[in-house]
Amino acid sequence: MKRSFKFASLLLAAFSIALLTACAGKESAKGEDDGIGRITLYSPETPDMSKELALKFEEMHGGKVDLQYAGTNVLVNRMLAERDNAQADLWYGGGGILPFEAAADKDIITSYIPESADKWEVVEDGIKVKHQDGKYVGVEVFVLGFAYNTELVSKEEAPKTWEDLVDAKWEGKIQFPNPAASGTATLMVLSYMMEHGEEKGWEFFDKLVENANSIPDSGSGPTKAASMGEAHVAIGFDFMAYEQKANGESVDFVVPEKTPILVNPVSLVKDGPNPEGGKKFIDFLLSKEAQQILADWYHIPINPDVESKTPLTIESVKPHAVDLDIDWVNENYDRIRNEWKDRYQ
């Protein structure tokens, strides 16, 4: 009898522990996802900033954000390879709208526009802020321009136009990212080709490559190099230079006379494993909380009610904007990138 009671007691204790463990597991799972689940985010944007956004989302909404970082074109190639078994739920950032336009044409992203952006026109103040079929929506505004080391280059000497970059005085003193890997550089090449034609475009890039001392894969790498004196001038986005400047580096930024001014978008990946979670994160990116994080990282937020640390505003940069022929981009995106690789790599 005692043996039976002891066995029953042990069995009851084991059952209780198992029940408590199961309940704790359910509570943990609920606490982890709050019904949202795991969200896989592909992004080439600054990893620390992206992590801050992910943590803020988890704090506000629950869930678990799996952030996967790589260069824009690397991520696009990954999504193409995963087309029949999508692994990502959403894709944020990539050097502006051009890779997103190409991705929409390749049918690897799908339509979703948050309620907060539903009434936006496709083009606002000359800037395309969302896809006409809803396949991406802008999160912030990027300006492509020139970072320069203020100890090596004076404000007066700094280049003011794209053509200034091919002056012989910059030989061995310029860095820009690799268009085969970076969305930033892809934008640089395609926008110049659109404005000047391919013949003049390739002549320009032949000279620019001669003036470069390095062409790294990272979109932010050249700006970091300029801030450390490894280059006099670098091609990159505005926020890259202002982040470095805020950290005490000797760097400043020039908005060229005419240059691409465009939104940096987010998009829902087609047939991703957790589309509802992806939509929730897209909603979050347009929220005041997320926009403030972007503003604190020196980005120009798309929400005009959020004040940024950057000295630039949408109003101040609009006069510098060049028109972008999106149809031309969709037709020539891969061909131009492949020709770049054949010519320079």
UniProtKB/TrEMBL annotation:
The record's SUPFAM superfamilies line, in alphabetical order, gives: Periplasmic binding protein-like II
Q: Which PROSITE patterns match?
A: PROKAR_LIPOPROTEIN
On the tree of life, the source organism's domain of life is Bacteria
Keyword Signal carried by entry: yes
Q: Which residues form the signal peptide?
A: 1-24
Alphabetized UniProt keyword annotations: Signal
Which InterPro entries has this protein been placed in?
Answer: Ferric-bd
Question: Which protein are we looking at?
Answer: Iron(III) transport system substrate-binding protein
Q: Which organism is it from?
A: Bacillus chungangensis
